[in-house]
Amino acid sequence: MALMEEADPRHALAVTAATEHFTAMFAEWLLARPEVLDGAEPRLRTMWLWHSAEELEHKSVAFDIYKATGGSDEWRTRWFRRVTVMFLGDLMHQTLDNLRHEKQLWKWATWRSAARILLSRNGLLRGNLSGWRSYLKADFHPAQQDSSLSTRWLADNRSQYTPVGTAPEAAAAALQ
Ligand SMILES: [Fe+2]
């Protein structure tokens, strides 16, 4: 935030658009593989899948505003490379902290599952490499990424969530 204070606001938009591309890629990856959450608490599982659908719904917003305000492709891709390092670094840091806190960090099973989830051919990192590269193309737009899994999940799981803005009474009724 301090870095952005004096800067042209389009820099912050480019950072947001770049981060949104990561969340959109990861969201689609998770919606295609909900079994990754097998064994998780059901409410957390629903929350993560709903959040994935929500990320896919707004994946174009920051990008479109960046373009509409005349943001350049040069800065867009430059920030994307920087965000790659910051975002993945933060994610790794947080995950290691969580694993340490849960006393799971120094277990063989943890590292085996991490290797499978992150590094297998369709894993979170390797499986999203082409999606990562696509952001660097001059004609990239977030809408080029298929988001049909988001629409489908929201339709199939309508009883599990309450749309934002719904009257409190309706929300309470939905929970019964
Ligand atoms: Fe988002």
Question: How would you characterize the overall build of this protein?
Answer:
This protein is mainly alpha-helical and 176 residues long. The chain has one domain. The chain is 64% helix and 0% strand. It has 8 helices and no strands. The chain has helices at 9-32, 42-57, 61-68, 73-101, 108-119, 129-134, 148-156, 168-175. The longest helix is centred in the middle third of the chain and has 29 residues, at 73-101. The radius of gyration is 18 Å and the shape is globular. The chain binds fe (ii) ion (FE2). Fe (ii) ion (FE2) binds at residues 20, 23, 55, 58.
Number of strands: 0
Which small molecules are bound? fe (ii) ion
Question: Main beta sheet: strand number and arrangement?
Answer: none
| First and last CA, distance | 42 Å
Helix-strand pattern: HHHHHHHH
**Contiguous helical run count:** 8
| Gyration radius from CA atoms, angstroms | 18 Å
Structural class, judged by helices and strands? mainly alpha
Mean pLDDT: 92
Strand content: under 5%
Q: Give the overall shape, derived from the CA principal axes.
A: globular
Kindly give the count of domains. Answer: 1
Unreliable spans: none
Proportion of helical residues: 55-70%
Q: What's this model, at a glance?
A:
The protein has 176 residues and is mostly helical. It has helices at residues 9-32, 42-57, 61-68, 73-101, 108-119, 129-134, 148-156, 168-175.
Main attributes?
176 residues, mainly alpha, binds fe (ii) ion
Topology of this structure?
Elements: H1 9-32, H2 42-57, H3 61-68, H4 73-101, H5 108-119, H6 129-134, H7 148-156, H8 168-175
Helix pairs in contact: 1-2, 1-3, 1-4, 2-7
Bound molecules: fe (ii) ion.
